[in-house]
């Protein structure tokens, strides 16, 4: 099958794992990089043996590039994505799709107008662990899912991150930072979300940086740092999702659990591609570990781009879709809105539950995506 030529815009820290993607996915051929810091782009090009270092404009004018991977900062996502679509490129965006829901809607409208595709991270739900969890649910191991929980609880990033200020500004906070992993996983496992309610608080109006290099500097907090959301799914199930930067003493709660009419499924951290899965069915004395039925349990960022590339060649839907990312974005905003307005918020932007991968999909069996 003819490879799909790819260009990457944005060569910050996250770009490294995407630049490794052709080693894992034979459909991809990364031929160019671009960054506002051209020196940084040159360094990545040398490190990963990429032939071309472009400006953004030069990349969008290159006729051989079919997919642009947008790894710019979130507030630039909409501008760069819309420009790439206007230039006739399919786009895969690092999460979130954009900052505002209306911008996300414009992106999908432009893609439909141009007959192009938009994909979006996170693509961890395509890894071996969450695909195995999906198989267990679809095969009825826990019966009909009726409820779920998700917990992302910890202290904030000011103890370790070199530039933690963004996490406490609009568009930041624990829900917008880590919520996409949990919400995407929930939709993958149980289907689209119908409505939400939420409560969100700012316990501390300022946070002190404790990283040695910047110790003592104060950060003003502009966004909630402890957020609880209740999710109602179209299939009738309900879920609780709590994200927090205010749990200083750690937690013993699981990352995710799905509760069904016949049992409970313990789901590993959706920030990762692998992890330990366990299941306990009604009448069992204890949880039992379940082996992974799919490949790509290591860090496999880029799997969503690869699936989109196969989808382009085979004229089928791709799994990490823009519609999925837009529902996730709207859900996060709606949880915050619900806390302010004191009411349920209906989710307006529809998506479909992504198709599961064929059983056995792995690096050795990439051909299973050719249909």
Give your account of this protein's structure.
The chain starts with a strand and ends in a 25-residue tail after the last strand. The chain has 10 helices and 17 strands. A hairpin with a 4-residue loop joins strand 11 and strand 12 (238-244). The protein folds into 2 domains: 4-124 and 300-321 and 352-369, Rossmann fold; 126-290, 2-Layer Sandwich (Dihydrodipicolinate Reductase, domain 2), CATH 3.30.360. The protein is α/β, with parallel strands linked by helices and 371 residues long. The strands form 3 sheets. Strands 16-15-14-13-7-12-11-8-17 form a 9-stranded mixed β-sheet. The protein has a 6-stranded parallel β-sheet with strand order 3-2-1-4-5-6, sandwiched between helices.
Number of strands: 17
Helix coverage percent of residues?
Answer: 25-40%
User: Strand sequence of the main sheet, in spatial order?
Assistant: 16-15-14-13-7-12-11-8-17
Find the CATH superfamily of the largest domain.
Dihydrodipicolinate Reductase, domain 2
CATH class of the largest domain: Alpha Beta
**Average pLDDT level:** 95
Summarize the main sheet: 9 strands, mixed
The number of domains is 2
Count of helical stretches: 10
Hey, roughly how much beta strand do the residues contain?
A: 15-25%
Whole-number radius of gyration?
20 Å
Poorly predicted ranges (pLDDT <50, ≥5 residues)?
A: none
The run of helices and strands is EHHEHEHEHEHEHEHEEEEEEEEEHHE
CATH topology heading of the largest domain: Dihydrodipicolinate Reductase, domain 2
**What coarse outline follows from CA principal-axis ratios?**
globular
* Helix/strand/pairing category: alpha/beta
């Amino acid at each position: 099958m003819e490879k799909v030529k790819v260009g990457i815009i944005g060569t910050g820290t996250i770009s490294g794992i995407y630049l490794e993607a052709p080693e894992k996915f034979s459909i991809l051929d990364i031929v160019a990089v671009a960054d506002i810091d051209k020196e940084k782009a040159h360094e990545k090009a040398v490190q990963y043996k990429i032939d071309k270092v472009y400006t953004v404009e030069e990349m969008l004018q290159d006729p051989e590039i079919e997919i642009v991977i947008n790894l710019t900062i979130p507030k630039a996502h909409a501008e760069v994505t819309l420009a790439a679509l206007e230039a006739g490129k399919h786009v895969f965006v690092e999460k979130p799709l954009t900052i505002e829901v209306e911008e996300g809607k414009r992106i999908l409208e432009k893609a439909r107008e141009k007959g192009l595709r938009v994909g979006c991270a996170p693509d961890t739900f395509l890894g071996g662990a969450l695909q195995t969890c999906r198989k267990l649910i679809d095969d009825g191991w826990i019966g009909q899912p009726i409820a779920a929980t998700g917990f992302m609880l910890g202290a904030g990033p000011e103890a370790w991150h070199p530039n933690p200020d963004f996490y406490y500004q609009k568009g930041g906070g624990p829900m917008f930072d880590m919520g996409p992993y949990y919400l995407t996983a929930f939709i993958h496992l149980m289907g689209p979300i119908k409505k939400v309610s939420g409560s969100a608080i700012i316990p501390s109006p300022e946070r002190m940086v404790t990283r040695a290099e910047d110790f003592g500097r104060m950060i003003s907090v502009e966004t909630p740092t402890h957020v609880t959301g209740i999710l109602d799914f179209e299939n009738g199930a309900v879920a609780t999702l709590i994200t927090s930067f205010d749990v200083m003493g750690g937690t013993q709660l699981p990352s995710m659990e799905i509760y069904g009419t016949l049992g409970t499924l313990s789901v590993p951290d959706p920030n990762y591609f692998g992890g330990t899965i366990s299941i306990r069915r009604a009448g069992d004395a204890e949880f039992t570990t379940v082996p992974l039925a799919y490949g790509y349990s290591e860090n496999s960022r880029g799997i969503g781009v690869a699936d989109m590339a196969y989808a382009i060649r085979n004229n089928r839907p791709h799994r990490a879709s823009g519609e999925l990312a837009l529902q996730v974005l709207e859900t996060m905003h709606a949880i915050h809105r619900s806390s302010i307005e004191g009411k349920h918020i209906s989710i307006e932007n529809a998506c479909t539950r992504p198709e599961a991968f064929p059983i056995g999909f792995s690096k050795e069996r990439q051909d299973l995506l050719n249909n």
